[in-house]
Amino acid sequence: MSLLEVKGISKHFGGVAALRNVDVQMTSGETLGMIGPNGSGKTTFVNIVTGHLVPDSGQLLFNEGSIAGTAPHRLAALGLTRTYQAVRVFGGLSVGKNIEAAMLLGLPGAPESAERNELVHWLRLDHRLASLAGSLTLFEQRRLELLMRLLQRPQLIMLDEPVGGLAVTEVREMIALLHELKARCSIFVIEHTMRVIRELADRVVVLMAGEKIADGPPADILRDRRVVEQYLGTTHA
Hints:
By secondary structure, the chain is of the alpha/beta class. The protein has 9 helices and 10 strands. It is globular.
């Protein structure tokens, strides 16, 4: 079943084209990766899909319904949410209070306490509930942000560089968590760390200067001549 359809999306900032006629499709249960150099339009794409920006042209469909221009909180209620490059948690509140704040969204079918506790345990935050979120390590904050989004029971979660800033051992742990996340919802992931893309993505879209230049299985994309020459170089992690 089609989950997300992006048809002919374009976005300009002044005279600069951030996206030019980009098409992207996702099916339910799929993990889709997006790669490309800085400035290629990846975050602009996510900002448009998640309601932070309005496209200049094109169509956005989620579960076959139009979502162009829909506010982020309304998209969350529909089952579409995201995380950010720079982690967004309430640093001055405890982990427990961050969880309570996420629950206050009052979305339909909010998790019961048993489900909430299972998520807290799965993300290994049960021993940190009384700690200020701002005192957590970056990896812990990323797990807390993910927990807060999962409390919305998303059908699709869009992850913007989920391993950015993490140590090598933490990257391995995050990849393992994201593998388990695939059983809970569909995933769209932007990453520069090619290990994440190779190990997680079912399919990869490549953006270059605001245009889609490739779309296919990771193994094919990571040896595509255009992708290697224009983005990956002769070697890649």
